[in-house]
């Protein structure tokens, strides 16, 4: 995989397709139901060759939290890159395209979460994949996290992770 290049158009098409798929998961909070999105992210991290060290924690019924670890070459504190999977409610009558369609139209991906913050998860995913494909080795460990329940305060997301076995500490 090292030193293989991806042209800009291929990367753009991958970003659009990945964003479109991610926003199709209805993670409206409440109730959240982020587990299917969390499992999809786990599969993306593995299939793209980013890391095999991925765990999905169920912080509450149907609430998935993803932790993926990429080792560093030095023993340093890890860098955490984090985004949240849940979104606020969307009234479809106010949308040009249904909020969970992932429609690709007018030069945009349409869907709830494209700006807050499923987009950030896709950026992290594709950036990590590109860097690793180019042969980059990180000095410090990288932790990719995707959390549920940010929109209503995080008690079933990051707060639950901090108080449980879903430790962010390096292994």
How does the SSE layout of this entry go?
Elements: H1 8-23, H2 35-47, E1 54-60, E2 63-70, E3 79-84, E4 103-105, E5 108-110, H3 118-133, E6 142-147, H4 158-162
The biggest sheet amounts to: 4 strands, mixed
Strand order of the largest sheet: 1-2-6-3
DSSP strand content? 15-25%
Q: Structural class, from secondary structure content? A: alpha+beta
Q: Indicate the percent of residues in helices.
A: 25-40%
> For the terminal residues, how far apart are their CA atoms?
25 Å
In DSSP terms (H or I, runs of 4 or more residues), the helix count works out at 4
- Return the CATH architecture: 3-Layer(aba) Sandwich
**N-to-C SSE series?**
HHEEEEEHEH
What's the count of strands?
A: 6
Count structural domains.
Answer: 1
Apparent shape: flat
Structure overview:
- The protein is of the alpha+beta class.
- The chain has one domain: 3-Layer(aba) Sandwich (Aminopeptidase), CATH 3.40.630.10.
- It is 29% helix and 19% strand.
- It is built from four helices and six strands, in the order ααβββββαβα.
- The protein has helices spanning 8-23, 35-47, 118-133, 158-162, and strands at residues 54-60, 63-70, 79-84, 103-105, 108-110, 142-147.
- The strands form two sheets. A four-stranded mixed beta sheet has the order 1-2-6-3.
- A hairpin with a 2-residue loop joins β1 (54-60) and β2 (63-70).
- α1 (8-23) runs antiparallel to α3.
- The relative contact order is 0.24.
């Amino acid at each position: 995989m090292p030193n293989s290049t991806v042209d800009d158009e291929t990367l753009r098409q991958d970003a659009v397709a990945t964003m479109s798929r991610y926003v199709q998961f209805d993670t409206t909070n409440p109730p959240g139901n982020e587990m299917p999105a969390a499992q999809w992210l786990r599969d993306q991290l593995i299939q793209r060759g980013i890391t095999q060290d991925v765990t999905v924690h169920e912080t509450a019924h149907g609430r998935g939290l993803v932790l993926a670890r990429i080792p560093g070459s030095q023993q340093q504190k890890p860098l955490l890159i984090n985004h949240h999977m849940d979104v606020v409610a969307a009234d479809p009558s106010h949308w040009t395209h249904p909020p969970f369609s992932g429609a690709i139209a007018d030069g945009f991906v349409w869907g709830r979460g494209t700006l807050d913050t499923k987009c950030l998860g896709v950026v992290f995913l594709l950036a990590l994949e590109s860097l690793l494909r180019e042969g980059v080795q990180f000095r410090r460990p990288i932790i990719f996290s995707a959390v549920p329940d940010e929109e209503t305060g995080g008690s079933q997301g990051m707060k639950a992770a901090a108080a449980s076995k879903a430790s962010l500490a390096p292994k």
